[in-house]
Amino acid sequence: MKWFAPIPLSIKLPLLAATMMVLVGTVASHQVLQSLAQVQDARIRELARMHVEGLSVALGPLVLRRDIWEVYDTLDRASQGVGGRRMVLTAVADERGKILAATDPRRVPMDSDIAALADDAVALDNLTVDGASPVLSLLAPLTYQGRIVGQIATELDVADLLSERRKALLFLILGNAIATGLLSVAGFFAIRKMLQPITTLARQMTETKGEPHPIPISDIPRGDGELARLARTYNSMVGAVLAKAEAERRLAERERFVALGRLSSSLAHEINNPLGGLLNATDTIRSYPDRPEVVRKSADLIDRGLRHLRDVTRATLDQNRIDPEARALTPDDFEDIKLLIQPEISRLALDLEWSVEPTSVTECSLSAGPVRQIALNLLLNACSAAGQNGCVRLMALTRNGNLTLQIMNTGAAMPQAALDRLLEDGPLLPGGGVGLRLVRDLITKLGGAISHSHENGVTCVAVSLPISWESADAEE
User: Fold this and answer.
1) Which positions fall inside the HAMP domain (predicted)?
2) Residue 397 contacts residue 461 (beta carbons within 8 Å)
3) With a threshold of 0.70, does the pTM exceed it?
4) Neighbour tally for 185: CB within 10 Å
5) I need a labelling partner for 283 at 20 to 30 A (CA). Which of 191, 268, 295, 401 fits?
6) Beta pairing, strands 351-356 & 391-399
7) What domains are defined for the chain?
8) What are phi and psi of 66, to 5 degrees?
9) How many whole angstroms separate alpha carbon 336 and alpha carbon 376?
10) Phi, psi of 450, rounded to the nearest 5 degrees
11) Dist. CA 382–CA 422, nearest whole Å
12) Which pLDDT tens digit goes with each residue over 306-356?
């Protein structure tokens, strides 16, 4: 039945209904034919019994007297009657089994043994129209006044009964075929109509391309039946999923803006300090234009300040470029991340430990944008958790074909709400951490894994990413 499983339900149920109709028609036809056979058997037995009993009454005295001519005359008159037309042959024998007379003397001569006719003969109670032969043979005792005085052998023509049975079978087959065909077609369309909500539901669930759509109100059955409730429940689930996705999108957007706000404020502070120095240098040049050594030192200070501003601006642009996934990850991306979090490190007087293996990063074919976003968000949270005068550490290396990022910080353990955002896919609760759900979504998209531990006052978040996103996708 494996071939039957892939068939759609809208085809499978009508086929099952048609099969049941055929089975019911077959059983009904068998019962009709069996009843017809029983009626025919009863008719032929009754006719044979009347024939034998009538001959017994008429032939009993003649057989005892061995009046052969009278026996023959009686048989001849009996064969001319209405019932006798079915009797193809009738022969009468005495007690010794010797033929006294027969309706066909040429075939059954006088004084021949009746046993020659008894080879295929059956008793009266066993007489049945079995369809094997159009002629039935009957052998019955000839009884007169309670005494068996001879035997009667009779052959009955049942060709008309067999023809009647064949016609009944033909009519049943044609009638059942027509009725089954009409009912099957009607049942097919009726069941297809009843299963239309299921078909619509399956189409909505399989052809949405990742975004579920509700079933139109016009396609929902009327009333409060099971299919109507199923369609309404599905629409409710779709609404809940869409609402959840929208809430997560707004929350992720809010977290992104929070992270950008914190980063922007730190960068503004980082840019403002060099600007003050640059303005002082320009004032010095204006004040001492005639002192070349002062002008040279001020120009060097201006050059260093402008280069620092250029690096900060470039790192910020790379972090927020429109197509962040178009460029492969390089060691310079980690230098940009270090530069971006430096204001936060300075503001909180944190001790930063930075360990990046350039060779490991160069071997990766990961997109720069997602990796930068993951590292920056985790580092911002680590800085916030470490607090004033804490310690933050980043390690980047390759292990077993994966790029491993380890972000560690001292301070309190990560709250449960933040852990839920970072490690689980369930609904988002108030609280948590900046960008943690975004981090999890990015890691999942890259086919990676994330783990968390807190021991001896140190929190460690480890991210493992396949060094080639294309190969990871092929393995899946």
Assistant:
1) 192-246
2) no
3) no
4) 12
5) 268
6) parallel
7) 2-181 (3.30.450.20), 210-320 (1.10.287), 325-476 (3.30.565.10)
8) 55, 45
9) 10
10) -135, 145
11) 13
12) 766 666 666 565 555 544 445 778 888 888 788 778 878 888 899 999 999
